[in-house]
Amino acid sequence: MEKLVVENKVKPEFKVHRSVFTDQEIFEREKKEIFSKCWLFVGHESEIPNNGDFIRRKVGGRNLLFTRSSDGVIRVLYNSCPHRGALVVREEKGNSKVFRCFYHAWSFKNDGELVGMPGKDGFSETFNCDGSKNLKEVTRMESYREFVFVNFDNNAILLQEYLGNAKEYIDLIADQSELGIEVLLDPQEYSVRANWKLLAENSVDSYHGMPTHKTYFDIVATRGGELSKDDLQGVGLDLGNGHAVVEYTAPWGRPVGKWIPAWGEEGKREIEEITRKLESRFGKERAERITRKNRNLLIFPNLVINDIMAVTIRTFNPIEPGYMEVTGYALAAKAENPDFRRRRNDNFLEFIGPGGFATPDDNEALELCQEGFLNNQEVEWNDISKGMIREQPVSNDEEQMRGFWRKYDELISNAELKPEEGSVGI
Ligand code: FES
Ligand code: FE
Question: Of all atoms in ligand 1, which is nearest to the CA of residue 105?
Answer without folding.
Answer: 4
